[in-house]
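Q: Joint fold for the lines below.
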Amino acid sequence: MAEFDASIAAQVNRMVERTIARSMKGFDYIRAPAAAVGLTPKDVVLERGTLRLYHYHPQADEIYRVPVLLVMATTNKAYVFDLAPGQSMVEYLLKRGFDVFVLDWEPPQQFERNLDLSDYTQEFIPACIRRISELTGEPDVSIVGYCMGGVLACIYAATHPDGPLKNLACLTTPVDWHHMGLVRVWQDPRYFDVDRMVDTLGIVPADFILQSFEMQRPASRVAGQLRVWEQMWNDEFVKSFRAFERWGNETLPLAGEYVRQMTKELLWENKLVNGTLVIDGKSANLANIRVPVLSVCAEHDHLAPYDSVKPLIEKAGSIDKRELLLKGGHVSLIAGPNAVKRMWPQLDAWLAERSV
Amino acid sequence: MSDKPQEKPTGKPARNPDESYREMVTQWERNFDSFANQFMGTESFSRGMNQAQDAQLALRRTFQEFMGKSLENMNMPSREDLVKVAESVQSVDRRLARIEDMLSMMLSNASPSPPPGASRKGPPRTKQPPKPVGGA
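A: Joint structure:
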């Protein structure tokens, strides 16, 4: 009975402590400026319109021969790869001995409204690879693409079967767009007039993109606030939450032509998985990919469901190919405390063997 | 201070109020999302949402046309005119970028390439993957 009383007393004590901490830190939370993100030292080594290529300063005394290019999804900023010290995939890879480059996107301007898949995969990615080769002196490069960045990387790999790509890792990369869940219902060709939208807007606004993400999990914003209130005493949790929240809110607008092409050719006609996608007169059939491929999927991914990601490994023409299905969601797969334990070490091990 | 659930004398874990709160939030989120997705995943929702969006776009288009004509009457450039100027600047920019790329390719072809693994600057590119633990 005395033990029971002590346990109750300890719980009450903890509740009181946390309630006080919540009240005190709650004010700081409201007043605090935006979370500092993307702090790992880097240089901008290429700027071209919407494109930014960063080179991160190596953090190991000896590095792998093959540099790594992380290709960010066109809808969000790449600092999700570098949220905060200790929670940064870039920092992790640097410490593990990789030479890391990141392809990031700035919001496209009205004059860039005509950018399409061809610009992203036949001009931007090759320009980055050429720059990396100049800087490193190495003839080849590994690409790690996240979400739509993975789709761009796949199209690049399929249209450049003779290199200079060395390895391709795709993180939550949808290739079978007929399994895209709610997006497919909302963009039903009978009701969604993509031509009218693109012709009227030119650039599809960030609000539209953010809404289409949030509508798939409409309770997540409120639930997030309820969780952070409960964890207000926990500085690490709050820091991480604020970085994620900032990243989620900084959704990017998209070039209209790019959206038109994605909607018609990928979502409606499913050309990527059917092998009928042609970019600049070149076949983007996934069977053309010959380099080692790693496809990482998240069990609870609502944006790129497993069924949309799964066919990549089946369709890729590579001999050396591997699928990894990990616990987590679309974002927690690549960033946050679970990614540190689950995905990053696997990516490190896979790349390390193939980067000499 | 531990976050582990405390044990009752009966051996069953005591309900930690923080944990109960977290579970409640997670459950509420799951239920709400599931309910909303059922509703938003219907054809009628998609039709309604797109009709509302079309109406918004039509309004925007009318306003754009009105503004365009007004600016034209005032002999002032419209946003569309400025975008066209920016597009032609961008096209020159891209041509320059292509020329730069060609020049750098020509230069790199002309200069002897360093041996594989020899880094131009920075740490040596000689790292080997760790040997598998317990491997032969």
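Q: Anything notable?
A: Residues 1-9 of chain B have pLDDT under 50 and may be disordered. Chain B touches chain A through 64 residues (CB under 8 Å).
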